[in-house]
Amino acid sequence: MRKKIVAGNWKMNCNLDETKTLLKEIKDKTNTLNNNTQLIVAPAFTNLLTAAEFLKETNIKVAAQNVHAEEKGAFTGEISVDMLSSVGVKTVILGHSERRKYFGETKPLLNKKVNTALRHGFEVIFCVGESLEEREKNNHFKVIEEQLDKSLFYIKKETWKKIVIAYEPVWAIGTGKTASAKQAQEMHAFIRELIAQKYDQATADGVSILYGGSVKPENSTELFAQKDVDGGLIGGAALNAESFIKIANSF
Ligand code: 13P
Fold this sequence. Notes:
The chain is α/β, with parallel strands linked by helices. It has eleven helices and eight strands. The two termini are 14 Å apart. 1,3-dihydroxyacetonephosphate binds at residues 9, 96, 168, 173-174, 212-215, 233-237.
């Protein structure tokens, strides 16, 4: 059975006080969870220690939104895997389209980041997604295949247990425009098939593939009902405890 996961990517939102408030609201609502979905929250770097300590005795995992590819050194302003580990964070989101777009993260760089994270025992939520233009040109399958091929399909078969994939069509992020359940299922099945071809069916069947892009309680039930959709990577709706938990309850 694949793990069901609902992860909140808080992006550059919530200062320390707001982080504490939101974490408390989420924690308080976990007793209303009606299934065993794995919850993950990804606050900003400055609030990771607080989050990790606050959630220590819970089943909610804390993830970082990024990490540097190098282990340490003269990389002003960057955060290493060891720094994350030392505050109790062992999960990281990599390859988010905002990192690719605004921070120039390339496929080879992401490959390096994935390797560094895996080497240090991290779980990686690896994001892929096509732009609107790429979808309109009917290039979306090719784009996703390349993103996986150049950044992820180098890893050893054994390490796939540490990987979660998030399919986030760029045109659906923060736009209110969700991929239809059919579009999500089609791409998730395609991704799983690629993993089966490159590795094997058992590996492919074990990987949780999340959908991201304007997920909210109003559409999560239909999305999560799809055979290959194992949960969601949530942006805006994860900043509200009630909607985050509602989404988690929609399997
Ligand atoms: P929204 O849910 O705000 O569209 O963001 C999705 C996302 O980018 C999660 O990583």
